[in-house]
Amino acid sequence: MAKGVKKYYSVQKRKKIINMVIAALLMISVLVVLITIYGQNVGNFVIGIETNVRQSLSLSEDANFSKPTTRLSAPGIREQTHATLADIPLDIENGSGSKNDYQKRRYFAYSFYLKNVSSIIMDYDMELIINKSTKGAISAVRIMIIKNGEKEIYAKAKEYPPEERGQPEDHIGTGIEEPYMTTPFLSSVTVMTETQKDFPPEAVNKYTVVMWLEGWDHECVDDIKGGIIRMEMMFKANY
């Protein structure tokens, strides 16, 4: 075979390999984009239950339990800005489902119902855990749990000033007009736990979860921009 012909086929083969590599890279790029988009649009707050044969719990976004389920996924809020307790509406627990502040992006809020759909009185345990946290955003977050009108606010224990490290965030001296007390997270993974005793058949508890980045927190700084927080609340019936 002539040298010119060999060179031609060599060039064509090289072009074919390059095109295959480019095509492969394009496919990888598309996959990365899809995964990124999917990850950003998945609900940032998941509620689930564990049941057994004798006892059963059910979840619903509405009080009538028109669509009972064992798992709920609440839509998150992207590019959330800072806020404070005074920015949370006093009637935030009214209604059901998602109540995110999409206009000003100040807070996440979600209400749902838990029902005993068994025929016996039961106890149940609830645990709120942190699935993912990046860029230190968890240090500035506030989580308010409202159960049947009773409210409690949780936050990571103080990190600053050093002499108060480990104490509850009380916001005294931060500039908040009406400082409020918080309950420290139980650990770096567990926010809080609860045990409900003697939950009778057909009984319903309403929960509202509100989350915001406390603007007066010392850890609410530019470094946490773009951070992600994902949480899960699990219920488990027990004897």
Q: Can you offer a commentary on this structure?
A:
This protein is an alpha+beta fold and 239 residues long. The chain folds into two domains: 41 residues; 196 residues, no CATH class. The protein contains one helix and 13 strands. Strands 2, 4, 5, 6, 8, 9, 10 and 12 form an eight-stranded mixed beta sheet that branches. A five-stranded mixed beta sheet has the order 3-1-13-7-11, with no helix packed on it. Strand 8 and strand 9 form a beta hairpin. The longest helix is centred in the first third of the chain and has 39 residues.
Which secondary structure elements does this structure contain, and how are they paired or packed?
Elements (H helix, E strand, L loop, with lengths): L2 H39 L3 E6 L6 E4 L10 E4 L7 E2 L13 E2 L8 E10 L5 E12 L7 E7 L2 E6 L27 E2 L5 E10 L4 E11 L14 E10 L1
Parallel strand pairs: 1-13, 4-12, 9-10
Antiparallel strand pairs: 1-3, 2-6, 5-6, 6-12, 7-11, 7-13, 8-9, 8-12
What's this, in brief?
The chain is of the alpha+beta class and 239 residues long. It has one helix and 13 strands, in the order H-E-E-E-E-E-E-E-E-E-E-E-E-E.
Domain count: 2
Pairing-aware structural class of the strands and helices? alpha+beta
Number of strands: 13
Q: Give the averaged pLDDT, no decimals.
A: 83
**Uncertain segments of ≥5 residues (pLDDT<50)?**
21-43
Strand fraction equals 35-45%
The span between the termini is: 85 Å
The profile of the biggest β sheet is: 8 strands, mixed
Rg computed from alpha carbons, rounded to a whole number of angstroms: 25 Å
Order of helices and strands: HEEEEEEEEEEEEE
Judging from the principal axes of the Cα atoms, what is the shape?
A: globular
Residue share in helix: 10-25%
User: What is the count of helical runs?
Assistant: 1
